[in-house]
Predict the structure.
Amino acid sequence: MARPAAIVTGSDSGIGKATAVAFAEAGYDVGITWHTDEEGARRTAAEAEAAGAATVVRRLDLGTDVGSAAPLVEEMVSELGQVDAFVNNAGTGTSTPFLDMALPDWRHVLEVDLTGPFVCGQAAAKLMRESGGGVIVNVTSVHEHVPLRGSAPYCAAKGGLGLLTKVMALELAEHGIRVVSVAPGEIATPMTGQEEEDPHGKERPGIPMNRPGDAREIASMIRWLASDEATYVTGTSFVVDGGMLLMAAVANQQRS
């Protein structure tokens, strides 16, 4: 019997790496993509292979060559033999005030964080339709739901990806394809300026659980959503943030 296969974009580090390894440990073969960190992608592949997975590693540039994404997805699926789960994890962001945001920077973030998942998700969905179904997980952010100063294109893209998830789920259910989004809060990864280490000792007074999340905590949610235990779940955003979004209620209470 053929092993199931999952493709995780941006899996050279952080959430993507943890997710690729989680799928490998669950018995999947794994497709891994990277943009600038090939060495990181190779380390992810080595961990996945140690768990018994076959791997396919490719460079994916959603910022300047998004048109190449669909053929790349098709190529990876051809090598893996099938695709049962596809995770749109690759992303980028800025820390620029709205009034100072340059149009090229705006376009770059939207290209990577919104157009990229559209192109990759569409390519994966077409292949899943032919094979009888699958699961697509779009990794968004708590900023799919709430704004963040200095992150206009990031918030616009993540909010857009959240609604794109719902449209995809609505249209693809008839083909046996489930689509969900996972919205992480602060996670200890290189993207948030942190090393991949145990975050339990790092204090975060602004988060009810008083720490950042571990990338493996997000990976376990993604892996569960792709499993047979979640077969009635689609079109929903799963926030995994240690209670960060609840702090608006605390701030409101402090003002009253």
